[in-house]
Amino acid sequence: VSVGNASAGVPQMSAPGFYKTPVTKALFFATLGSSVLIPLETRAKLLNLDLNAVLSKGEFYRLVTSHGPFKTTSELVVGLFLLYKFRLFERMLGSEKFGAFVFYATSLATSLSAGVALSTSIRPTPGPYPLLYAMFVLHHVLVPPGKPKFFGLFGVDFSNKSLYFFAGIPLLLSQGAASVLPGACGALAGWLYANDSMSLQAFRLPRPVERFCQAFAPLFRGTPPHPLAGPGGRQGPAGRRGQGAQLRGQ
């Protein structure tokens, strides 16, 4: 990941809530709402990634709606936990660049998943798997462990970052190949973005699209942290600010 200039205006990465993360907040509540409010049968019939319906009936909206609801309650709980924790990447990159990353990662991963699904019997499970596992790669690259010896098991030390993987691996395997496929495609998209050999970090959404999204940003604006709150995060603000500047500087 290339290095840019540090920005004094970067907020504390671990500030509670959805402060300065309107994109993540919108994704969080869209996932929660679609998973809870829309019946499973309706989701399976109208929202899931049915490539036959996409190609034969022109139901291209499924390419978007399939990233919303999770299939089961346990997947929803774990997925929302990870999505909330990964909100720090929107603070690192800024909302405009993070929005471009969301569009890039989901678009590429969906295209790859669809290509595999067309040539196999695998049907990708619904849910924001591509985005979550693209952010897993960013988490591995950008966030050093705050506590290298957070806990031990059978003589092996695990850092605090291990908790994310203990949550993410069962989620990835929850639906077998149907969840591994979109998750793996998302991880590949995240790796290509972090590696930046194709200058993907310079990608931005068109200005009219950004202005349209900014019109809704006040609806998802989080509450600023209390001024007496402690300094940012287990890692400490300096480390994450430096890492965040690497991507914000693009």
Q: Rounded to an integer, what's the Rg over CA atoms?
A: 18 Å
Helix and strand composition category: mainly alpha
Helical element count? Answer: 12
- Poorly predicted tracts of residues: 1-11, 231-240
Elements, N to C (H/E): HHHHHHHHEEHHHH
The outline comes out as globular
How many beta-strand runs? 2
N-end to C-end Cα span: 10 Å
Mean pLDDT over the residues: 82
Strand order of the largest sheet: 1-2
Largest sheet: 2 strands, antiparallel
| Share in helix | 55-70%
Query: How much β-strand is present in the residues?
Result: under 5%
What does this structure look like?
The chain has 250 residues and is an all-alpha fold. 58% of the residues lie in helices and 2% in strands. The chain has twelve helices and two strands; from the N terminus they run H-H-H-H-H-H-H-H-E-E-H-H-H-H.
Task: Give me some keywords for this one.
single chain, 250 residues, mainly alpha, 12 helices, 2% strand, globular, disordered N terminus
